[in-house]
Amino acid sequence: MVRDDKIMKKYLLTLAFSALLLLAIPFSALASNISNALYWANIAIVNSGAVATNVVTTANISTTNLINGNYMNATATNIVVRTSSGADVAFMPGYTPGGYPWCLFVPNIGANTILTDILYTANSTGGYIVYCPGNAGMTTPSDNVTLPVTDNFTISQTGWIDTDNGTADKNLVYKKNAFRTFISDTVSGNITSTIPGTATTTNTSPTSATANGWADPENAYDDNTGTWSSYTVATVTWTPYLELHLADNITCTNIYYYNGDQGVDITTVEIDVYYGGGWVNIYSDTQIFDTFVTATLTSLQAIEDLRIRFYNAALVNREARVYEAWFGASDWIQVTALNVSSGNHTITTGIEVR
User: Fold this and answer.
1) Considering the entire predicted model, what is its pTM?
2) DSSP 88
3) Are 257 and 325 in contact (CB under 8 A)?
4) Which domains does the chain have, with CATH numbers?
5) Using one digit for the tens of pLDDT, what is the confidence trace for 40-87?
């Protein structure tokens, strides 16, 4: 079953005439100047383990003491950190030792080695100050009204970026449900920017099922919210997964399922989708009855399988039900820069609505 959601068509047309551009441009940082520095101090970087490359370490330096002692101004624009050989070090001033410490970038350090960086303060210029957000990236709450963007906008970041894959949710910028730039967790060197849609334009029903003990699995995709597939689940445990399949994959952004009346003892539902060689959980929440529920992926994916299960919190057996489940393809747009090596880059994403 394929359905068109006419409510979404105006918004879809707007995005259909949009251009999304992502550029990853290497850059070289300008050299600092320490000729007029009034003070300096050594920072020992100790590695008691194996060889490490392209890592960030922390130092418990009191920003308050530096400012109060006139070693540093309030914006940290008169300090520089260099290696013992004179190369500029990328660093992030902190403001609470222990909780929010200073961060220093270390390109490489040998096993069981001590390196020395030098902090130059007062009347230095050109310090290589960066932002070290961690794997979660620069993240905001959903629909933060203080961070809106217009129809035409650009978002740029400049700094050292690790483009190796292998870490989920490796975000550079993430405004939830609005905008995201991230490193692929499956392909090294791929940087993607995406703008999620707000509704679905097309829903596609599964074409087959793997029941795993569920009765009438075809009722879960018969386009009828008055029928259901059911499973009698034992006390205080999960049902097996009801797996639903397509004959071929679709570019998918959402999973929709209709949840009729199951009783309050069936407390939790979990939904997984299959892509990238494994199952990925996209939804785990308490039940909402007699309505369609949306489970949203964090990025566009080619998907042909979903699975769903429920938890029975009662001390007696209960019947769990799947009324309807659909694959949803919405009006997301995204673009990917390929084969970007780790290093210093300016990442710019721009959109123009025409």
Assistant:
1) 0.52
2) B
3) yes
4) 2-27+133-199+334-348 (no CATH), 39-121 (2.60.40), 200-330 (2.60.120.260)
5) 999 999 999 999 988 899 988 888 889 999 999 999 999 999 999 999
